Amino acid sequence: MNQTILMATINKNYDKLQGSYLFSEIFRRTKNFTEKNPGVEIISLGVGDTTQPLSPTVIRGLLKGVKKLAHIKTYTGYPDAQGDKRLRAALSDFYKKRNISLDVGEIFISDGAKSDSANIQSIFGTDNIVAITDPVYTVYLDSNVIAGRTGKYIKGRYEGLIYMECNEKNGFIPSPPKQKVDIVYLCSPNNPTGAVATKKQLEAFVAYALKNKAVIIFDAAYAQYISDKSLPKSIYEIKGAKKCAIEINSFSKWSGFTGVRQGWTIVPMDLVVEGEEKGKVNGLWKRRQSTMFNGASNIATEGALAALSDIGQKESKKLIAYYMQNAKIIKKNLLKLGFKIFGGNNAPYLWIKNPEGLSSWEFFDKLLEEAHVVGTPGSGFGLQGEGYLRLNAFGHRQNIKKAMESIRKNFK
Ligand code: PLP
């Protein structure tokens, strides 16, 4: 008897993804331009990657981590899947100084905020309704698409998702959804718009989450860029947040760890979800991490411990001040040229309104062709990003100045 044997199949949700289009298209257009214009120097303010060297204290910490591996008495192998207890204690102290009390069992060390912000959804039911902002850091979106929480992609939107629109009218910080959702993603300071939520705005989200039994996933990767003391750096500055919010954070943009890799996630014991007891969500994340993650690098952990020391924090402040001075230079120059600009005050991102009603890609092309500067088209972050371009303040000072000079001289 002939039996039909089927081949292995793929996760069809991957076919719904749109995301990689953005950066591959930026790369394609930039390459196309440089091939036609050999010798023309391109300055990229597009990809949000750090450029300045690690601080001396962090370097000493990393070296200490390497040296420990050279001796039998100090060598360590697999780390604790939840993370080195010393680093969790140091983070707990760090929050305590801001009147936020966290037990070391509530802190999980990771290899950065990207993996945690993508993976955290896996501990929640696939039937949960998810709300994201538009525009959005696409990792929250794509991870939920892959997990099957969305339907088809139609005209720039996935069926089944709730979009919280961010625009000039609301200062790019939305109000909580009108309908009940189960999971809400927030990012403040925001990538891509550079907007920062006020205490009052976060209070509205916490009140919404408590009332609607929703969970907030709060990405605070740029918290240390906030210099305005009235703005919250952590969702846990809001009363009641420990009952409804998970916070994700990173040393990447704080201390230049984009290549070193080290971050953390807080899952409070008090966070409860439908039909489960206190501690269940925390336990699930612990289970997930111990099953699918073998712990953050022990060398990077020594670097992170050094970054958290008093002197380490002082040095990281200098690093951030450098990037924020870049932001100031970009803002000042572009405002002088008549551009409308948002963000860039307490965040390393500037959200530029495109001149003359140009679309995001039209403005991208014009900036590339005339001034040889690469930005990121806002439309790549969602429908509401159309008509905007993101510039970031990461970069060497001379390149930032060169980019501004070139825009001033050549942009028509
Ligand atoms: N979250 C946001 C909002 C980001 O913009 C980024 C990086 O650009 C990340 C997370 C990822 O950070 P990490 O380097 O810690 O993975």
Tell me what you see in this structure:
With 412 residues, the chain is of the alpha/beta class. The chain has a 7-stranded mixed beta sheet with strand order 2-10-9-8-7-3-6, sandwiched between helices. Helix 4 (113-119) packs parallel to helix 5 (138-146) and helix 10 packs parallel to helix 12 (397-410). It contains 12 helices and 15 strands. It binds pyridoxal-5'-phosphate (PLP). Pyridoxal-5'-phosphate binds at residues 48, 112-114, 117, 137, 187, 191, 219, 221, 250, 252, 258, 263.
Task: Please write out the topology.
Blueprint: H1 21-36, E1 43-44, H2 56-68, H3 85-96, E2 107-110, H4 113-119, E3 130-134, H5 138-146, E4 153-154, E5 157-158, E6 162-165, E7 183-187, H6 199-212, E8 215-219, E9 245-250, H7 252-255, E10 263-266, H8 280-292, H9 298-308, H10 310-336, E11 340-343, E12 349-353, H11 360-371, E13 373-374, E14 376-377, E15 388-392, H12 397-410
Parallel strand pairs: 1-13, 3-6, 3-7, 7-8, 8-9
Antiparallel strand pairs: 2-10, 4-5, 9-10, 11-12, 12-15, 14-15
Helix pairs in contact: 2-9, 3-9, 4-5, 10-12
The structure holds pyridoxal-5'-phosphate.
